[in-house]
Amino acid sequence: MAATSQLQERLAEARRVAVLTGAGVSAESGVPTFRGAGGLWRKYRAEDLATPEAFHRNPKLVWEWYDSRRQLIARCQPNAAHRAIALLEHRAPEFLLITQNVDGLHRLAGNVRLVELHGNLWRVHCLDDGQVTENLEVPLQAIPPRCGCGGLLRPDVVWFGEALPPEALQAASDFAESCDVFLVVGTSVVVQPAASLPTIARRRGAYVVEVNLEPTPLTSLAHESHHGKAAEILPRLLGIPSDASGNFEFRISNFEMPSSDSRPPTPGTPEKPCSP
Ligand code: BJW
After folding, report:
1. Active-site choice (82, 118, 125, 226)
2. Which tens digit of pLDDT belongs to each residue from 76-106?
3. Does the first or last residue of the chain, that is N or C, have fewer Cβ atoms within 10 Å of its Cβ?
């Protein structure tokens, strides 16, 4: 971790705060990352599972993979990094969480102002009638699942070679161009177009802070880069108090609330993460 940090001072002065997250933020909840040791792409080929061509070739195989990931993620809980980001949303006058994660854990932690650039594992999308619906069935009773209209359903996620949801990408780009602080947590910063957002923010004058286990292509460009586990580093960086045993106290009262805030309360102490 960098010896000193100006993040708290910058946040105190900031009007618009953006956070970009990747798989590393959920790693300590027990959700596997994609790249690096233990990453999904070490075990599976993205071309076989995460492209539209792979799905058309073998929807059953792709759905079996997604079903097994949904089963694992269904047992996972947000960790201290998710909770810290949820508290940050309550503190910032204007805030946007831009996540590449499809696991839904940020929402579970209490974030409301968020865009999911790569979709969500708990939604399905009918290839025939185009309807997008929530689907929480774990495990799936039929693989591949079908829509009421008889059409083939696919996970409502973004695969390689596919366009990101245009409204989500536009909102993320607009916020990156105009924010005062841009925090980047647990992403390898290699998958485009998400990987360009911190650079856009930096060029437009934002204070850019990265938290990651290891250096990334962003490290040399960021104002601060902190290396270690997000669930340990992020609450400390944000000044969230901890008790005598070192457990962070995730209470809204630990932050000054914007006066007009009417959002739901942030959930309390994190639950135990599941085993991967
Ligand atoms: C911790 C930690 C702890 C671990 N604490 N840290 C320009 C140049 C080159 C290529 C392209 C380009 N533009 C587009 C492309 C192609 C491609 C791309 O970027 N490829 C690169 C890999 C080279 N991009 C696309 O295809 C995108 N589409 C697109 O651009 O379309 C254009 C278009 C326009 C109009 C019409 C048609 C097309 C789509 C990208 C979709 C990505 N999809 C996936 C799968 C989602 C569904 C699913 O989950 O199954 O999204 S791939 C995967 O990577 C997933 C992630 O969201 C994404 C990013 O990964 P992330 O989150 O960064 O995870 P990791 O594993 O890479 O990194 C984890 C990090 O955490 C590491 O750094 C660890 O060190 C760290 N860490 N534990 C802190 N405890």
Report:
1. 118
2. 999 999 999 999 999 999 999 999 999 999 9
3. C
